[in-house]
Automatic annotation (TrEMBL):
InterPro entries: Nucleotide-diphossugar_trans (IPR029044). Gene3D superfamilies: Spore Coat Polysaccharide Biosynthesis Protein SpsA, Chain A. Belongs to the glycosyltransferase 2 family. GO terms for molecular function: glycosyltransferase activity. Keywords: Glycosyltransferase, Transferase. This is Uncharacterized protein. It comes from marine sediment metagenome.
Length: 239
């Protein structure tokens, strides 16, 4: 059985390669990476194809309209495999070797690790915490999703263009469908906002304008803003 990892990347070659290497070091064994290359220009496509041809399958596209579309593309294909689950990983993270195995062992339909952004005062600590406890705040930078959840809840909403709020939308829909989406204390190193910070000014402004439109779409759908008090009250209502 292949343990698939789905990763979407736009440039950031050096960071993406670190993410890929940490993915391939997962101690669950028989790991393969399905890399969606979103129109990268800096040599990422060639590097991924050349360095790991046996275990990294790279799919090249002009930039798809959204992160949601890229995730759906990979998930709709990979969840049809014999494993019935996929680990989805951002390209600005580095995983500890136990990540995939422990997320699978948890048994949840949608379970995530927890991102840690180190500082000079507080370096990254790879210690796994108490996995009998969980938080109802999934981290969509590293998440394991099972086929039954994707089929029950449906794909990410591709109306959220480029990237923002597609994760919050799915979280609300999972809750309403009775899926317990949770985060457990498996740390991963997160170079937060690395992709947007690497973009030229004009493209960053485009992303930020679309993020505002996505916020407005989410508010129209659910009557509140992502991260607000009203947002968290959505999860207090029993499905």
């Amino acid at each position: 059985m292949t343990n698939w990892i789905l990763m979407v990347a736009r440039d950031l070659q050096h960071m993406t390669m670190k993410a890929v290497v940490s993915a391939l070091r997962q101690d669950i064994g028989n790991v393969r990476v399905w890399l969606v290359n979103q129109g990268s220009k800096g040599g990422l496509a060639q590097a991924a194809d050349a360095l790991y041809p046996d275990v990294v399958t790279t799919h090249h596209y002009p930039p798809l309209p959204s992160l949601a579309a890229a995730w759906n593309l990979g998930l709709s294909h990979l969840l049809e495999g014999d494993g019935g689950k996929v680990l989805v990983v951002n390209n600005d993270v580095e995983l500890i070797p136990e990540t995939y195995r422990l997320l699978v062992k948890d048994g949840g339909g949608f379970v995530t690790a927890v991102g840690v952004t180190p500082t000079p005062e507080k370096p990254f600590d790879a210690t796994v915490g108490d996995l009998t406890k969980s938080r109802p705040h999934p981290d969509f930078s590293v998440f394991l999703v099972r086929k039954w959840v994707y089929e029950k809840v449906g794909p990410f909403d591709e109306r959220y263009l480029i990237a923002y709020a597609e994760d919050a939308d799915l979280h609300v829909r999972m809750h309403r469908a009775g899926v317990n989406a949770k985060c457990i204390d498996i740390p991963f190193l997160h170079h937060a906002a690395a992709t947007i910070n690497s973009l030229p000014v004009w493209e960053r402004e485009k992303v930020e304008r679309q993020a505002d439109l996505n916020r407005a779409l989410f508010k129209r759908e659910y009557g509140c803003e992502v991260g607000s008090k009203e947002y968290y009250k959505l999860f207090e209502v029993k499905p």
